[in-house]
Amino acid sequence: MKRLVVLGGGIAGLAAAYFALEKAKKIGETLHLQLLDEKNRVGGCILTEKVNDFVIEGGPDCFLYEKPWALALCERLGLGDRILNTNENRRVFILSKGKLHELPEGFMLMVPTSFMPFIKSSLISWPGKIRMGMDLFIPKKESDEEESLADFVRRRLGEEALEKIAEPLVAGIHAGTPETMGLSSTFPKFVQIEKEYGSLIRGMLARRKMAHEWQKKEGPKRTMFLALKDGLGEWVDCLREKIGEDKICLKKKVVGLKKAEKGNYQVELSDGTLLETDSIILATPAFITAEIVKGMDGKLSEILLTIPYVSSATVSLAYRRSQVHDPLDAFGFIIPRSEKRKIMASTYTSVKFNYRAPEGHVLLRVFVGGANNEDLLSLDDDEMLRLVQEELREVVEVEGDPILTRIYRWEKSMPQYLVSHSEKVARIEERTNLLPGIFLTGCAYKGIGISDSVHDAEIVAEKAVDGLFRKRGQATFLNPI
């Protein structure tokens, strides 16, 4: 019987364990699997809490339809009928000069694809609109040298588009800053679109047409953002059940790896216990992985430590509907750095998804920290709540105190894909290939989103099981939509 240890119980580790067991079953082999996590629960940054008919997400609240792997895994687990679309009102506002302005209809990320809403928008000045329209005439970049996201947006769409749209959007997704983010690793689709169409606007128009064609396909209609009726914690619970409670070991801190005499490995725990295994999947943050592998490969450890992380927090607040004077006719708002506010964004959770708040109440979620305001994570809970409430009062006219609050702090949870990140990943893979039977996965390498993590976890699980049983059959990757 072959043995596999998966380190890390976030979505990447859970998915890797599930796929490894499924792969072994498919090829008719028995796999002894153990999943270890130093915390007292699995799920990582996915954390759902249910309180008085409120469904509160501490971390991610959804996954993307256009990246099909998370949806496909949910369906494979039998959760297809639990998938939850967003509600119809999909507007997003951007705070500019102290006022909320609607992101014009037809914007795909930071690119306009509908003429009249863009022209009528109060968000972008006329010089800014003209500059964004110049994207249609600016020649595509011929050099393969990687740009930062900021340099790319300035070159194609201009400074105002960067400041008012791109920067707050990516701060909400990556908790980073466009000046340091590598374009090819954070938004590779932009590189592809520029090469193929020579213009972001032309490319996004073509993609919008393709998206409309996808929506005509038979089967359930899906929106861009998807969740589960009882929150993403429902997904974690299902994965845990499918893997088996007997295979999951919590409160187990791994401090190192050792090469065993028989050519396999020993996993060293903080209490001195040594676990024998034939293969290891490390689905831990890069800085933790660096400490674990340091004794086996110091160079690999050094490269892993060059991937920086930032901290953030989400603050959820429940109110009676009568306390909020804003119409809340949108999914929420984002805030550019130039506004010098203390919060990054807010999601109107109970507007975005059904089943999130009881009748007559609303649930709002506010994002704090990130690369620009990481120091705010040092505030205690009372101070952070006061700060968030003050910001909400000024932006959406909230009256009185919330009836329920929850703060979730995520210390060093968001890896930053800097310029040349893809080169780091290539070097990490080169070093890991020198350690047969050891595999790395997780959001630090090839995509920070949930779907990206699921996709990479399946690829790594396939490789690990194939290596253990020396099988070279075709992969069983999840089918794209």
Question: Can you walk through the features of this model?
Answer:
This protein has helices at residues 11-26, 69-76, 115-120, 126-133, 149-156, 159-174, 183-186, 188-197, 200-215, 233-243, 286-293, 298-304, 349-352, 381-396, 421-432, 450-469; strands at residues 2-7, 31-37, 48-51, 54-57, 63-64, 83-85, 92-96, 99-102, 225-228, 248-250, 254-259, 265-269, 274-277, 279-282, 309-320, 332-334, 345-347, 361-369, 404-415, 438-440. By secondary structure, it is an alpha/beta fold. Helix 5 packs antiparallel against helix 6.
Total helical elements: 16
Name of the CATH superfamily of the largest domain? FAD/NAD(P)-binding domain
CATH topology of the largest domain: FAD/NAD(P)-binding domain
Helix-strand makeup class: alpha/beta
**What is the highest CATH level, the class of the largest domain?**
Alpha Beta
